[in-house]
Amino acid sequence: MNECLLCDSTIASTPTWKALLGLDDTTIICQDCSKKFVHAEIRNDTDELLDQVTSLYSYNEAMRDYLHQFKFLQDIALAGIFAHELHAQLKGNAIICPIPMHPHKKIMRTFAPVDELLTSARIPFTHLLEKTGTESMGEKTKDQRLVMNPLFALKPGTMIQPTTYRLVDDIYTTGTTLRHAATVLKQAGAKRVEAVTLIRA
Amino acid sequence: MQNPFDPAIRDFLTGRIWLRLHTPFSIETIDEHIEAGHIQTIPGIISTKSLTRQTNHFCNRCENTTPSRFTTFNCAKCKGPCTYCRHCLKMGRVSTCTELIVWNGEPPTYPTTHSLAWLGTLTPRQQQASNELTTSNQTNIPHLIHAVCGSGKTEILFEPIHKLLTAGKRVCIAAPRVDVILELEPRLRAAFPQTAVEALYGGSESTTASPQLILATTHQLYRFRHAFDAIFVDEADAFPYTAEETLQRAVRKAAKPQAPVHFVTATPSDKLLAHMKKIGHISTINRRYHGHPLPVPRYDALWNYTKRIQKGKLPKKLTEWTQARLDKNEPFLIFFHTIKLMEQAEPLFRQLNPKIAAVHAAHPDRKQHVQALRDKKIPGLLTTTILERGITIPNVQVAVVGAEQLIFNKGALVQIGGRVGRSAHYPTGDFVLFHHGITYAMDEAKNEIIQLNKGGVPT
C-alpha cells in the first residue's frame, strides 16, 4: 500500500509474481495521474550541431504542474516518476552529459533537477560542461536567445573523445541551450552529439 | 532586548511560524531582528534516531511524523543528507537546513473597542447556547455546539466572539473547507465592522496586517503557533479534518497552550461527542431558528442509474424531477458520488436547460457558479459532496443521485438535507434520495432527522 506522489490517493496494487520476487518497479504514481502525461517520442535528425534530438513527453497542464512541483517547490521525490522511461531511452554506450546548472543556482535550489532525474533512472553521467553565467532561459525572448554569448564552456581538465555524446535536459523549447552545449562538444572533437529531453514544449 | 524593533514585523510574526527566507520583509531586516533577540529561529525538521536505529522525522511547521511523507536527499546547500517534509510542501519547502522563525519579543496589544453590528435576535435556545459558550470561554473549557443545519450556528458565535475581542483577545474561526470560509467572511465582516478581520485560504491575498479575528481553513493553521486565545472549528466533522491527524494537531498548535478549542457542527462524530462529554461542555439545539421541522428525506428507486447515464440517457424519474423544478422556477442541487458520473450526466441535463452547470472540488469556477445559483442566473447545479455544507440558497430543492454510495454516510446525508428549507420564507422543500438499494446510512440519517424533529437529542 503506497500513496501516489502527485495526488496522495492510495494506489491499489494487484499482487503479481514479479512484485513478490521484488523484480517489479514500485509504482509511485497512480493510474489517473500517469494517464495525464502525454507521450511524445519526438525524434528529429537535425543539423550538423545536434545529430539527433529525442523528447519523451509533450508539454501539457500535467507536465507544467509536475515541473512546478519538482523544480520550484523542490520536491525531489518526483525525480523518480519517469525513471523507467528515461532508463530505457538512455541506456547504451554513449557518454551521458547533463546540461549543467550554475553552482550558485544549484545551491539556491539545493539540487540539480536533471542530475536527479538521471540518478533515479540509474544512468551514470559525467559533467563535462560548466555554465558561464547565471541567466536563465525562461526569462528571455526567442530573439534574445539567438544572439547570446556562449552559455557553456568545457570544464577545465576534461578530454573529449571522438565518440558519441548524449546531452540530457528537462525541457526542449527552442533548442538554444542544447545547441550551445553541442557547439562546445563538437569544437572539442566529439564525433556525434545527440540529445534527450524529458519534455518537448 | 532594549534594541528597537519594527512593529510591522512584530504584528506579522506574532503567532505565526514562518520560513526565514520567505517573509514579506527583507532578509537583512529579519537578520537584524534575530540578532537582537526579537525573533527566534527553529530548525525545520527534527530527526531523531530510535532504539531500532530507525530515523524518525518531525516537521516543526505541520507536525507531520509519517515516515512516508518525508524524503531525504543529498543537499547542495547544506552539503549532506537533508530531509524535507512533503506534507506541507505546497506552503514552501521545509527541510533540515531550512530555518523557521517565530516572534520572541514583546507581544502586541490588540484593540478593545469593537462593535457588534448584527441586528437580529437569537431564539431562546440560541441565546442559551451562546451564554453557555461565553461561560466556557471564561473558564477556558472546550465547548461543542451541536446544532442542526439551519439553526443559526454562526449567529450563536457572535456574542462570545465579541466578548473575547473586547477583552483584547485574538480569535480564530477555522473550517476544513474553503467554501465555509468564503461564506463566513462577508457575514463576520458585516457583524464586526470595527475589527481587523482576515480570511486565509489557499490562494487568498497575503497581507502583512495583524488581524485580531482570523477566518482560516484548517490547513492554513500549519503556519500559526500559540496564536489564539480561542479557536472555533466550524463543521469539525468535514473531510479532511477528521481524516488527517496533522490538521487536528495544527489546530491545537495554533491555539495558545491554555486556550480552548471549540467545535461547531450539525453532525458530530461519535468520537467527538464522547470526547467533548469527557473534557468539555455541550450545547444542543434541535430546532431550526425559524421553528419549522427539518425536511425528512424521501426515497425513490432509480435502478441502474449508472448504466443509463453511461448510455447517454437520463433516467425518467430524474428528468421528471428536474423538469418539475425548472417549471416551478425553483433552484436545485443534484448531488453525485463521483466527478466522472456527474460529468457524464452534465450534457444530458444541458438538454433540459443549457444553463445547468456542474461543480466539484477542483473546478476553477466553483465560486462563480454557486453565486450564479444564488443570484438566480442559473436554474440549478450538479455537484459532488463539496457543496454538502456551508451554503445557503433560499428555496433550494435537493436530490441525491446514488444515495446508497459509501461516500453518502449518515453525516453527509444529514448535511445535504440541511441545505433544504433554511430560509424562513421557504421553510420546506423536496429532499429526495434517488437510490439503487437502501443502505443503513440512509435509514440512520432519516431516523436521526425524525428524532430531532420530535425534539429528541441524538447520541
UniProtKB/TrEMBL annotation, chain A:
Record InterPro entries: ComF/GntX_DNA_util-trans, PRTase-like, PRTase_dom
Segments traversing the membrane: none
Cited SUPFAM superfamilies: PRTase-like
Highest taxon of the lineage: Bacteria
Keywords: Transferase
Pfam families (alphabetical): Pribosyltran (PF00156)
Gene Ontology molecular functions: transferase activity
Keyword Manganese: no
Positions of the Phosphoribosyltransferase domain: 167-200
Recorded family membership: Belongs to the ComF/GntX family.
Listed name of the protein: Phosphoribosyl transferase domain protein
Organism: Filibacter tadaridae
Lineage: Bacteria, Bacillati, Bacillota, Bacilli, Bacillales
From TrEMBL, chain B:
Gene Ontology biological process: DNA recombination; DNA replication initiation; double-strand break repair
Record flagged with keyword Nucleotide-binding: yes
Entry's EC annotation: 3.6.4.-
Regions annotated as coiled coil: none
Record SUPFAM superfamilies: P-loop containing nucleoside triphosphate hydrolases
Any GO molecular function: hydrolase activity
Cited PANTHER family: COMF OPERON PROTEIN 1, PRIMOSOMAL PROTEIN N
Protein name, per record: Transcription-repair-coupling factor
Organism per entry: Filibacter tadaridae
SMART domains according to UniProt: DEXDc (SM00487), HELICc (SM00490)
Domain Helicase C-terminal: 313-459
Keyword annotations of the record: ATP-binding, DNA-binding, Hydrolase, Nucleotide-binding
Pfam name, any one: Helicase_C
PROSITE patterns: HELICASE_ATP_BIND_1, HELICASE_CTER
Residue span, Helicase ATP-binding domain: 134-286
Lineage, uppermost ranks: Bacteria, Bacillati, Bacillota, Bacilli, Bacillales
